[in-house]
Design goal:
This protein has about 220 residues and is mostly beta strands. It has no helices and 26 strands. The protein is rod-shaped, with a radius of gyration of 39 Å.
Length: about 220
């Protein structure tokens, strides 16, 4: 049926040449609502919140379905702490006056959040030496180091030559893969100062057969 079929219908019956009074019925034909426009904040990382959106259609009820047995009757539902299992195609329909629209779909990508790398260093070390920081390999990832004395680096295993006491402290690294950043991993670095040279002395001159005594100042 089309919208043109809406209106008043009339019927009579005739028996043995005799016609009944007229009976009428009013028919309503509702239009099929347009499919909503579906969207999302994809791609997202596991652990984040996935937000699904559908355009507003006045008077409509909404019905969402999707991966991992997802259903919702909200216009704009969210999935907090999303997992990789939520990746896939989400479908939404609207119903107005008992008439359901064609489905609208949106494809969602949930990328896994990488595990924090394992970190280390050659600490403790002395002033003037080279500090070597290390992080385990995460294939395809980028690295971001921060630390004392305004230190930053995008290298996996950065070094600080001719290190000073200001380099002592906690160094933090994260890895980012497919736009998803790991939890931070930390390593504590100890930089020890170079001690002052002691004052050396002896009881020289001495004679052969005597005892030679060497002395150094206490540190």
């Amino acid at each position: 049926v089309t919208l043109a079929a809406a209106g008043t219908y009339t019927v009579t019956v005739t028996v043995n040449g005799c016609t009944s009074p007229t009976a009428t019925v009013t028919v309503v034909v509702n239009p099929i609502p347009a499919a909503p426009v579906a969207g999302s904040n994809s791609p997202v990382c596991s652990g984040q919140t996935l937000n699904l959106t559908a355009s507003t259609i006045v008077g409509a009820t909404y019905n969402w379905t999707g991966p991992n047995s997802f259903t919702s009757t909200l216009q704009n539902p969210s999935i907090p702490n999303v997992t990789v299992a939520a990746s896939g195609t989400y479908t939404v329909t609207v119903t107005v006056g008992g008439c359901t629209s064609l489905p609208a779909t949106v494809t969602v990508v949930v990328n896994p959040t990488p595990v924090a790398p394992t970190v280390g260093s050659n600490s403790p070390l002395c002033v003037g030496q080279t500090l070597n920081l290390t992080a385990s390999t995460v294939v395809g990832a980028t690295y971001n180091w921060t630390g004392p004395n305004s230190f930053t680096s995008a290298l996996q295993n950065p070094s600080i030559p001719n290190v000073t006491l200001a380099a002592a402290g906690t160094y933090t690294v994260t890895v980012t893969l497919n736009g998803c950043t790991s939890l931070p991993a930390t390593v504590v670095v100890v930089v020890n100062p170079i001690p002052a040279a002691p004052v050396a002395g002896s009881n020289s001159p001495v004679c052969s057969g005597q005892t030679l005594n060497l002395t150094a100042s206490t540190i």
